[in-house]
Specification:
NADH Oxidase, four-stranded antiparallel beta sheet, 33% helix, globular, 4 strands, binds flavin mononucleotide, alpha+beta
Amino acid sequence: MQKPAITKVGINEVIAKRWSPRAFDPEFMLTSEIIDSLFEAARWAPSCFGDQPWKFILFNKEDATSFSKALNCLSVGNQDWAMDASVLVLVCANKNFQHNGAPNRFNQYDTGAASENICLQASYMNLSAHQMGGFDSEKARDIAAIPSNVDILSFIAVGKMLEEKKISALQMEREITPRKRKPLEEVYNINTWKK
Ligand SMILES: Cc1cc2nc3c(=O)[nH]c(=O)nc-3n(C[C@H](O)[C@H](O)[C@H](O)COP(=O)(O)O)c2cc1C
């Protein structure tokens, strides 16, 4: 199932193709090569001072015990569909620069860019990624032993979208909601904040 971005002008195909589905194929597993491609894409994101503040913790459904611990951190609404993803990725960011230990106020900015690279790489490989803010970050900190000098930002579910004919009516209801965006005119101003 495709839900390409409706754009006023042409944009990069992979950006147009990426969207956040909830109907994943529960049988599909990622190969180690696919997993490496996702994090290779993240690795090449830009970052302030080239600090690369991100760290991703992978929970693979092949390891059912660890996957279910990660799944349990999610809100009930997210668990409902993310259980069918192949992997759950916990997105973390170091709060301090590595070169001098000073607070890095760009850690979340940089890690967001790296996360989007994961989502785009998934799309490029005909997979899907769905980011989530609905989870208990202290539970996640606990299960993955994340130290206090690290921000916990999101989870990303990655997997293969379920074939359209296998999508239940209930799932389909969620999948067909139109993708909404502000009009292009509201996205940027010229020279000033004021219109
Ligand atoms: C930081 C962040 C948190 C999100 N949290 C959730 C979430 O908890 N549950 C969910 O179903 N989707 C979540 N989403 C997905 C957004 O709802 C989705 O990206 C947005 O509606 C745009 O749709 P699109 O990705 O299909 O273009 C989140 C996305 C981001 C970037």
